[in-house]
Amino acid sequence: MMAGPGRAGGPPGDLDTAIAAAKLGLVPVRTDMFDLGGLHLTSGAGRRLELFVSIDDFMLGGERYSVPSELVPVMLDVSRTTANGYALRLRFTAGVSGPCMRCLEEATPAIPVESREVSQPGESDQLRSPYLEGEVLDLHGWARDALALSLPAKLLCQPDCAGLCPVCGANMNTAGSEHGHEPAPDPRWAKLSEIRFE
Question: Could you tell me the pLDDT band of residue 105, with boundaries at 50, 70 and 90?
C-alpha cells in the first residue's frame, strides 16, 4: 500500500495512538511503501511523520516470534540532503510474542527500536539504503529488519527467569524453593558400590 504524507505528532506508544484514532473514528492506514517524493522537500528541509506498519513473523533460534499488534505506530523523520539524497530515522516500540529462551513459557517483551538510514545518490554503496528505490521507501521491510537487529541476545519472559531444572525439566520460576534432587553419586566411587560384604 502506497501512502502519502502522514500526520505529525509526538513519539508513538505501543497501541495508544491506534486506540485513540479508533475512538475518534479514524482508522489507521497501513503504510508498506512510502513515496518520499510526495513530501516535496527542498535541500535541508525535513518532516516528522507518524505512520503505521505491519511487521511479519520471524524465526529466532528455531522458534517463531510474532508482533501481536496488527499495526504498529512508528515515527519517521525525513530530511532532504544535497544532491537529492535523504537522511532517515525510524523509531517505534513493538511487543514481541514467543517462547522464553530459558523456560519456554510465553514471553512478551516490548522492544524499543531506533534505526537510521542515509541514501546519497552518486556516492559509494555504503551511502545507498537498501530500503530506498528511487524515492520510494520500503517502510515494511525496514521496520522488520530494524526490530530484528534490536532484539536482545535472549528473549525472556522476565529478566530474572530461572529457566528449567536440568534434571527433571520443571519450570524453576514456579517450582518453589523446596524443589531439588539428590546429588548424583561421584562416578569415581562407582567401583566401591560393587563390593559385597558377606
Answer: very high
181 occurs within a structural domain: no
In a domain, 170, yes or no: no
Rounded to two decimals, the pTM is 0.72
Please choose, from the candidates 150, 147, 129, the residue with its C-alpha nearest in 3D space to the C-alpha of residue 57: 147
Are 92 and 73 a contacting pair, CB within 8 Å? Answer: yes
Backbone angles phi, psi at 86, to 5 degrees: -135, 145
The C-alpha atoms of residue 20 and residue 48 are separated, in whole angstroms, by 19
User: Does some domain include residue 177?
Assistant: no
Over residues 173-197, the pLDDT tens digits come to 888 777 878 777 777 766 766 776 6
Residue 81 belongs to what domain range? 2-160
- Work out how many domains the chain is built from and give that number: 1
Pairing mode of beta strands 2-3, 58-60 = unpaired
Distance, CA of 192 to CA of 167 (rounded, Å): 25
In a domain, 178, yes or no: no
